[in-house]
Structure formats: structure tokens, C-alpha cells
Amino acid sequence: YHAPFDELLSDGEEEEEEAAEGDAGGDAGEAPGALHVCDWCLRCFRRAAQHRRHAAEDCAVRCPPGEEVLREPLQGRSHQFARAMDMAEESKEAPADDRLRSVSVWRVDGAEQKVYCRTLCLMAKLFLEHKTLLLDVDDYEFYVLTVNNANGAYVAGYFSREKRSVRHNVNCILVFPHFHRLGLGTFLVSVSYALSRADGHLAGPERPLSNHGARMYKAYWEKAVVKALAALKATADPPLDVTVDAVSRHTGMSHADVRSTLHRLPWVTIAGDAEPAPKENADPKPNAARTLTPALTPTLIQTQTPVRRQ
User: Fold this and answer.
1) According to the model, what pLDDT value does residue 189 have?
2) 35-62 per-position pLDDT tens digit
3) Which of 47, 76, 107, 301 has CA atoms 20 to 30 A from the CA of 5?
4) Measured between alpha carbons, how far is 243 from 108 in angstroms, rounded to an integer?
5) Closest C-alpha among 162, 166, 168, 100 to residue 137
6) Which residues fall in a coiled-coil region (predicted)?
7) What are the tens digits of pLDDT across the range 249-281?
8) Domain 67-203+289-296's class?
């Protein structure tokens, strides 16, 4: 592991580990150095027996400790998510509680939920070698992605962003490996830009990007710019004259990212490319209500308190 393993373990872990060894004697075939993580509260354990006891008896949390800001139905793709989670597939034979129904995004304040957010950062370090933010989480918001069924909300990934930054809408983004190839990374990117548009900012991810992150963002930018051009050309005068600033404000992307994307589209000509672009974030709206655009087809949740077992 790249992260400090011991920092992921809860206080008093050594005493609990000794008790678990005495009670269960360890699990046969358990991989040495394995990290067992609670689906709900993200508490980490060295041994599977500890993890099972915690999940069955101790953990009362069933969703991230924040406000649910977006919920979107899986719309027929639940079987793909079920396979990723090694759960029963969506079918008539599947137990009703196991059927995955939606994805959600939860806003978690790093200053209010320090332990939870620090755990997210330490877990991200296991998969992102360039990850630097580990413990100083007070100035960041974390947008946690979950896949949901009747049992609760399973954490699938997250992105973080600095609260006061208007240039960057993502500081770190991660989808856990067993949820790869389901489009969740692109979904998180689209949420970050929807938030930027709601705030009245033109923004982009913090650099440098990893190789995988650069590929994901370039693919997202090209699709977003093409959709913006199609939407804007109907109202442009003349019909095919669309400005870089108009595309930026339609997508929430910075002028630099829009220009670099347009240069990669061989059928687009940028007239007067040497002209300076309008100042970004010239009219920020920090107090604007954060409502996502219809393109994401979300069901917005105004207030959602953490679900706890009765």
C-alpha cells in the first residue's frame, strides 16, 4: 500500500486485533496485509472477523455524513453495478434489498467531518500515487458518490474541491477500482462542472492530471464542447458564429480548456485566435442556489440527514 497503513486503522485497533485473534483465530486463506473497509462508515480493519463483527453489531451508519444533493436512477444498468459489487443481479429472483436502484452524490464538509474525509484521502492514496492532501481537510468539500439499494448507500468514489477556489472545481477525483468502466468518473466530472455553472464560475481540474485523468477529461471536454456548439449555433448570429466565451459559459469550462479542445476538433475554425478571451469568473455568483442543469436529469434533494439503524 502507498498510504500509511496504520493511519487508516481506528484507535484501539491493536487491542481489538488481539481480541479478534482470540475469538476467531483469523480467517483461513486471508491475504496478509489486506485492509477490510466498512461499506458505510469507512472504518478499516486488519482482519475480516473484526470487519464482520463491526458490520453486524456496531455500525449504525448507512450513508455518508452529509447532505444528499443529487440522485439519479440507474435506468436499466443495475446489473452492471451489481456485478461490480459481487451482488445479486437485478432480476425477479434477486432479493428486493439487493437490487441497486440509483446513484447519489453527497456533499460532506471537511471541517465538520474530519475523520471521514481524512479516511477518504488516505484510501485515495492507495490508488493515486500523486495524491498529496491527506489530513488537512478543513478547507475542502467532498462530493461522495454512492450506489444505493434498500440497505443503504455504498461508497463508489468521490471528488474534492477547495471551498474558496474559483479556478478549480476538482482537486482530487477517484472511483474505486471495482466500480471502473461504469462511466462513474465521467459522471463525477459532469457534476463538478454543473456545480461550477451553478456558482457562476468557469473552472477546471487542478493540474497536473494523471495519464488516466487526462484521458478522461479530454473525452469529457470534447463531448461537452460538441454538445455546446450544437446548442449554441441555433441562437448564434450568424448561425455558425459561436464565441469561445459562449461555449465556456454553456459548459462551465475555462477558456483555456475550451480553446485546447476546439484545437483538437479538425472541423472547427477559431477566428481571431490571438484575441484575448474575456476575463474568467467576471460575474461570479457565490450565493446562487446550487441547482444542477437538466442535462444531468437529477432529482435534487434539499436536505437529507444520515440514515441510521433503529
Assistant:
1) 95
2) 888 988 999 888 888 889 998 888 899 9
3) 107
4) 36
5) 162
6) none
7) 999 999 999 999 999 988 887 776 544 444 444
8) alpha beta
Question: What pTM, to 2 d.p., does this model score?
Answer: 0.78
Nearest to 124 by CA among 77, 177, 83, 162: 177
What proportion of the chain, given as a percentage, has pLDDT over 90?
A: 39
CATH 3.40.630.30 domain span(s) along the chain:
67-203+289-296
Closest CA to 106 of 156, 145, 49: 145
Q: Which residues pair with 160 in a beta bridge?
A: 142, 172
Q: Is the pLDDT of residue 12 over 70?
A: no
Do β-strands 36-37 and 44-45 pair in parallel, antiparallel, or remain unpaired?
antiparallel
Q: Please report, as a single letter, which amino acid is at residue 34.
A: A
pLDDT band at 150 (very low <50, low <70, confident <90, very high): confident
Give which of 127, 201, 103 is closest to 161, Cα–Cα: 201
Neighbouring CB atoms inside 10 A of 220's CB total: 21
Taking residue 230's Cβ as centre, other Cβ atoms within 10 Å add up to 10
Phi-psi region of 248 (alpha: psi -120 to 50; beta: other; left: phi over 0): alpha
Q: Which of 7, 17, 72, 206 is catalytic?
A: 206
Dump pLDDT digits (tens) for 198-210: 999 999 999 988 8
Cα angle, residue 159 at apex, residues 157 and 164 outer, rounded to 5° = 160
Instruction: Supply the DSSP symbol for 55.
Output: I
Is residue 87 over pLDDT 70? no
Q: What is the largest CA-CA distance in the chain?
A: 78
**Is 17 in the active site?**
no
Q: Is the pLDDT of residue 134 over 90?
A: no
In the DSSP assignment, the letter for residue 179 is G
